[in-house]
Design a protein that fits this description.
Blueprint (H helix, E strand, L loop, with lengths): L3 H24 L32 E2 L5 E2 L80 H7 L14 E2 L2 E5 L12 H4 L49 E2 L2 E2 L26 H4 L21 H4 L20 H4 L4 H4 L7 E2 L4 E2 H6 L23 H4 L32 E3 L6 E2 L7 E6 L19 E6 L6 E11 L8 E2 L4 E12 L5 E11 L6 E10 L2 E10 L9 E11 L6 E13 L4
Parallel strand pairs: 14-20
Antiparallel strand pairs: 1-2, 3-4, 5-6, 7-8, 9-10, 9-11, 11-12, 13-15, 15-18, 16-17, 16-19, 19-20
Length: 595
Amino acid sequence: MVTRATLHIIVAAALVTVFACTVCAAGHQGITDCFVCHDFANGHHDDPASGNLRWVPNAIEYPAGDIHEPIAFTVFSWDETWGPIPDGTLADGDDTKLDGPCEVCHTQTAYHTNTGDGTTHFDAENCVVCHPHFPEDGDYFAPQLIGPQSHETHLRAKKGPQITDCLECHDSADFGRFADGKQLAGTTVCDPCHSPGGAYEGVDDEVVGAKPNWEKGIYRTSGDALKKGKDHWCATCHDDGSSVVKGVIAPNVMGDDTTYGYNATGHGRSDVNVQCGDCHTLVSKHTDRKQRTYKADSENYKKGYRLLFDMDIPRNGTFGVEAFELCFACHKYEDLFSPMSNFRDDNNHLYYHELHLDDGFAYYPCWDSDWDGEVDSASSCTACHNVHGSPTPVMIRHGELISSPDTDDKVPALDFRWYEADGSTETSLREESRYGALLCGAANNDLSYNHVCYGCHATGLIAYDRDIDVVKEIAIEEVWTTDLSDNEKTAFEPGEDIRYHVTFAMTDASDGSSHVIARGRALNLSGADWLTKFRRKKTLSEGNYHWSWDKAVPAEATPGSEAEVRITLKMFDAPDGTLFSKHRKGTKFSIEGME
């Protein structure tokens, strides 16, 4: 009969065969096989009352040939917060006994000694506080360095530089000091990466500096968010200082922090207060030796910029909320695609957010989305806006962030200005502005003119006239389906009658009447292809309205499939006039029966 002890010996022998010449020898200098530290034939696995744990023998031979005894290993793990480290651990740091298995060799090494005689590198401390011999990954033969959170960030975390050589930062003769021979308070080793010379002091600042936060860390325990009050941690590298990591200059998103920049004119300003972690993931790969991590031909906009939300960039045919998920996580689609938007020309009744971002130009490549000098995408929000803040109003791109690294070769880019009613006096206040103007280039013209996009206008400074008193808007409140008796219903059989409903509100601050056109499309989302169209047009005054259409579900609709009705309302100043406002909304319904 195979006893438990016999089974342990068999398993251990197999381990010896696999690991003796690879893991043990590679991980512990001078050790040639597992039997140096383990006695699988006579030792014990998990019964400290019978002897040492893990088959550790009572005596261990030094690599030099001396015998060390007695060896005591009866405490599997110990947290220093529980109290004094007891005798019987891997390394208790007690220089009167030195009887832990680790201490057999670690009184003889150049570093990591545990003799208590003043030798550097955490002398007389328990080795396993930073080097667990039984880590969570179960690799018992490869002790790992834990140390403070900062070690994890620098060595292994994706968001960190993933340093592979301790000597990049530490003194080879004394790991308690840094490569310049100084201790933490006086070292300059941190300076190149952590940028002490910018608007946000990255090395010694008491709140977000690298040194004051070395031991306790800047991140929450989960590692995916900053601790409370540490919001400006990212700014310490991404300011106007000189942070260079792995040869790459950290892009300056903080500007000069006075006239422009994230906290001055961007989303970080006090009236908006969006933090870096609201849009960016703080756990994905960050320092990768690439100056720009998004490339249009790789279609990696979300991953490249470490975003929490998608953007369809490069954009080719997509439109609506789904195409700009990042921006519409906060902004309201209806506010930007209506007279509520500032970006409009009231003389010509044009709404430029809608014009540039809706389906009309969704297939028109005009924007250099990865700033390499070649057009690769239809326009999107970040074509015109530097969301991190620019010197021009409403975060219109001025060229600082898209310029070649450490240059301003794309300034002034779009060069947007606001003007007062006289058309010539510039203002930075939206409530004072009536005109807006920016640089543009004719279609297919060289991007070098504004460094951002091709245009649809004559090359030069173009302007639009905005009447700040005019508000014309149409807004859909609800879309739903019923039977012909107006009983609300969301499942219909093929060929069954169906009534499509929409309620909407009209706002017309000019006290006039506007022309409304409704277009509806009911279509399959699965199953056989089918499409039902309907429309209506009427001149209406300001108020609330309810329209409906009686139709039938096509007989060819597939039982068990899904369908949707989408209704689009457009508001014009007159029949065949200029578009003022547009809104689209839909609802889903199902086709009854089994496929």
